Amino acid sequence: MPTCSSCQEQLPLDYVQCTSSLQCKYHFGCSGIQESTWRKLGSQQQTWKCQTCRKQAKVPDNNAPVSPNELRQFMASVTEKLAPVEVIKDTVQDLKSSVEFMSNKYDELLSRIEEMEHEKHVNSELINQLQLSLKAKEKEISNLQARMREAEQYSRNKNIEITGLEVVKGENLMSIMEHIARIINVPCIENDIDVIHRLPSRRGEGHSPVVVAQFTCRKTRNLWLKNKKKANILSCEVTEGKAVTRIYLNTHLTPEWKNLLWQTKQQGRPKGYKLIWFQENKIMAKKDVNDERAIIIKNNLDLEDLV
Question: Where in this chain does the entry annotate a coiled-coil region (predicted)?
């Protein structure tokens, strides 16, 4: 008796048979098809195949011969499918070239930036050196200017400047100096005065030209400046004129010192500096005669100390 190809048990008289070359035989329960469905197949039972045979039929035979035509078709199909790949390959190559170009440009840019940074550093050091050199030169120039200013002022250290003295026709300036000497109680010998003259007027009409007297020694000049504080002298008291203007005896300053003294007074007076005077190539300023320390002014920058 035949046996079931699935469970290997003996088959009854009525069973299901596969029409494949294996001629597999099954119980209805092992065949995968219901008995009622099998009955309905009728003549189609002659072509029915079990699941096992159907699966084997789907497996291709790798050893089957391939015709030249099929091979050409296959190669044509592969070539067609590979065509986009070639395009992509060309695109990738172009992209690679572009990336390499940009990379080279980037490297060039970095190199240029490094050069510029180096140049900047070198220029910065050069600028610093030039600034230091400039400051040194400025200091040197300032010192030279100070020395020139001191030298110019030193050349006037025997002089007295007299302002407010009326101009009288035929005046004798030496005689006027003798009158002033008697008023401030100082001896006046003609040989004590080396030169005396009026300076050209720069203030226009209505102002008497300044008188400058140069003594033969500084000690005599200083005595005159010290004693000038003892009297208020009017022009008419020492000349044959009629002007009742007060005359002033001062140190004969250079234009630069005179301007700085004027600026010191302009800024110092409103701030309470009552005493402002020139002494030994510097301007001194005090708010009160009892102040121990005086503000020293030697240039315009020192005016900031007037607080």
Answer: 92-161
**Cα dihedral 25/28/29/30 (nearest 10):** 20
Mark 213-226 as b/e (b = at least 16 C-beta within 10 Å): bbbeeeebbebbee
Look up residue 271 and give its two tokens: 């701030």
The angle subtended at Cα 154 by Cα 151 and Cα 160, nearest 5°, is: 145
Quick one: tokens of 199? 């300076």
In the chain, the N- to C-terminal Cα span, in Å, equals: 137
For residue 89 the two structure tokens come to 């390959």
Predicted structure pTM score: 0.55
Residue 105 token pair:
């440009």
- Report d(CA 190, CA 144) in Å as an integer: 38
Please say whether the beta carbons of 260 and 297 come within 8 A: yes
**Which residues are 275's β-sheet partners?**
286
* Two tokens, residue 188: 């006046």
